[in-house]
Amino acid sequence: MAYSQSSIMIRVHEIALKGKNRPMFLRKLESNLKLALKDFPECSIKKTHIGVGIADVNEDSLDEVLEKIKTVFGVVKFYKYFKVEPSIENIENLIASEVPKEPFKTFRITAKRGDKNFPLKSPDMDRHFGNFVQTLTGADVSLYNPELNIFVEVLRDQALLYFKQEQGPGGLPVGVSGKVLNLLSGGIDSPVAAQRMMKRGCRVLFMHFHSFPLVDGSSREKAQELVSRLNTYQFHSTLFLVPFADVQKEIILSVPPQYRIIIYRRFMTRIAEKIALSNGAQALVTGESLGQVGSQTLENINTIRETVSIPILSPLIGMDKQEIINEAKNIGTYETSIIPDEDCCSLFVPKHPATQSTPPEINLIESNLDVEKLINLAIENIEVQTIKSN
Ligand code: ATP
Ligand code: MG
Q: What is the whole-number distance in angstroms between the Cα of residue 324 and the centre of ligand 2?
């Protein structure tokens, strides 16, 4: 069967990874690749000293496996390779048997000596195997625009040969940077913010506030669907569904309409901080973009943040709406985000909420509310769901 199976090598960012974090990084990458490729149990996935190797990939599922690898953060590049024990003669024989059958007029050798005991240095390998391929095929060397690139990499116990490198998504493997909690509305922005944090190596927990039964359950369903789409990048997720209607009912009794949205957000943030801390998450993540809507002025962002002590990360803060939309389309969340829903934050708020607020002013308004009691009321009724990838 050996002839119908392929091996793939996954490479990581070498410069960023010198030092002590490297083993942990590669271990996470290995376990994330296992989750991404769980539908291909025949693949054998193991970290090596240069990256993560995937062996025994069936030829019929090769394309699907390559597509999956493109969604795993931490993968910088990858290639399907052939291997032999490292000797000049073995490498020549391997090149002769694996070089593509279709004729090519120009080529280059890109050789790298990873084992200093191999008799030829990298530039000498370029020349030696270049002459060999020229004699074998009659093709010419073209360093800058070759039809075929022939990569040779000599390691301690094996030499690799490959012809094409694919680009991975880069970033860091999900999990190496710790946990964060994303405030996930049904909108376009917050899922994009969550995916960006995953790309920086965070495992993301999700929290969605809904006003069911004051409104229908559509926003809950959207939140579930968005999380399931984002599982492409982190494989399985926890979603906290927070009933917010009872808190909102209390807020509208004493808070003037133009301030309600800010007060809703302050409660959301406080509740999110408590759940984050009790679940090992070290920061909150929102989809805010400066000035996009009235609640996202610097004044209001400030008034919302002063309720908590853990950091609130907003990776989209400097992006335009159109840039965020493009990114939502790329990562596969846009189609779900634009389904109409009944959002809790539009309940009992005027079209033009206050764009300016100061903490003392808002603290005064909130002094009529039993903040702790309302937070606990919401927390007691949280529904926790585990969402697995399809
Ligand atoms: P989005 O597109 O993410 O809904 P938005 O542009 O509509 O963002 P806002 O409505 O001001 O902006 O919300 C700002 C942020 O507050 C959101 O990105 C999200 O992180 C959080 N948020 C808003 N509503 C909810 C909700 N119902 N549940 C959880 N988080 C929410
Ligand atoms: Mg929104």
A: 13
341 lines ligand 1 (CB under 6 A): no
Q: How far apart are CA 143 and CA 157, in angstroms?
A: 28
Q: Where are the chain's structural domains?
A: 7-167, 179-388
Helix ranges (DSSP H) in the chain = 22-36, 62-69, 88-98, 122-137, 189-199, 218-234, 245-254, 257-278, 298-305, 321-331, 334-337, 359-366, 371-380
Give the fold, CATH level 3, of 179-388.
Rossmann fold (3.40.50)
Is pLDDT at 1 greater than 50 in this prediction? no
Q: Is the CB of 286 under 6 A from ligand 1?
A: yes
Rg (CA), the chain: 27
Pocket test for ligand 1, best of 180, 181, 190, 263 (most atoms within 8 A of CB): 190
Ligand nearest to the CA of 209: 1
pLDDT tens-digit profile of 294-332?
Answer: 778 899 999 999 999 999 999 999 999 999 999 999 999
Model pLDDT, residue 4: 66
Supply the pLDDT for residue 339: 95
For residue 22, is pLDDT > 90?
A: no
Task: Considering only residues 49 and 384, tell me which one the structure prediction assigns the higher pLDDT.
Answer: 384
Which position has the token pair 């909130």?
366
Structural class in CATH, domain 7-167: alpha beta
Contact by Cβ (8 Å): 260, 353 = yes
Ligand 1 and 185: CB distance under 6 A: yes
- 253-276 average pLDDT score: 95
Report the alpha-carbon distance of residue 37 to residue 52 in Å, rounded.
13
User: Does any ligand 1 atom lie closer than 6 A to the CB of residue 301?
Assistant: no
**Structural contact between residues 161 and 95, judged by C-beta atoms closer than 8 angstroms:** yes
State how far the alpha carbon of 225 is from the alpha carbons of 179, 184, 237, 344, in Å: 21, 11, 12, 18
Please tell me if the domain spanning 7-167 has the same topology as the one spanning 179-388: no
**Closest of 97, 96, 92, 98 to residue 79, by C-alpha:** 98
